[in-house]
Amino acid sequence: MYRILVIEDDEVMPKIIERILHKEAYHLDHVVNGKEALQKLEETNYGYDLIITDIMMPYANGFEVLSRVKNRKEGKPIAVIIVSNAGNEDMILEGFKLGADDFLKKPVIPGELLIRVKRLLMRYQ
């Protein structure tokens, strides 16, 4: 079973993501900011297969989490999808420079999210 960490400070978006992905029997954990995400990653020894993160969050933003995940020297690689309202070109390019595997603009299209998640999980197997 794949483990997915959802990092999102909006209360509605994680429910939408869970609703889209629940049929695939993924195990989803949700945290509300980057600080909690970094703690959760440490607690689980980075035991996730995929991270879906917002960019603009309190305490530590999505770029900080992305950078930490992608710059680890040990452990298995983790796919990262950025999902954000902030869709200006500079932010998208910054995400990809830091190692993001994909970027989706809110509101997400359910079928598109599901296909992108499946594709990344297969690539990182």
From TrEMBL:
Transmembrane segments: none annotated. Keywords: Phosphoprotein, Two-component regulatory system. It holds the Pfam family Response_reg. One of its GO terms (biological process) is phosphorelay signal transduction system. Residues 3-121 form the Response regulatory domain. The modification 4-aspartylphosphate is found at residue 54. InterPro entries: Bact_response_regulator, CheY-like_superfamily, Sig_transdc_resp-reg_receiver. This is Response regulator receiver domain-containing protein. It comes from Chitinophaga terrae (ex Kim and Jung 2007).
